[in-house]
Design brief:
- The structure is a single chain.
- The chain has about 90 residues and is an all-alpha fold.
- It has a single domain, classed as Orthogonal Bundle (Rna Polymerase Sigma Factor, Chain: A).
- The chain contains four helices and no strands.
- The longest helix is centred in the first third of the chain and has 23 residues.
Length: about 90
Amino acid sequence: MDEQQEKCIAQGLRDGKADAWQSLYDAYAERVWRGIARLLGSKTSDVADVVQETMMAAARSTANFDPTRGSLWNWLWGIAHSRATPSRWATCWA
């Protein structure tokens, strides 16, 4: 995704446009899935839960996205990583 596409999606998210959410999901959901799967292993239900929680948290916090601080991917991955970390530690200590 180039910078212009990312800016359009970010503006659409701030404006509450549904097609912006679809574009965000299409662009990044698989990448989030792969990253979380690397962190948590192959337990598909845990990965699916974290991806869903990530997208829901992103939906609730679009006002927190600041393009001057980084890309949409960095923002989304930060959310995903914070959602995965409790699951990861629970698995390690179980």
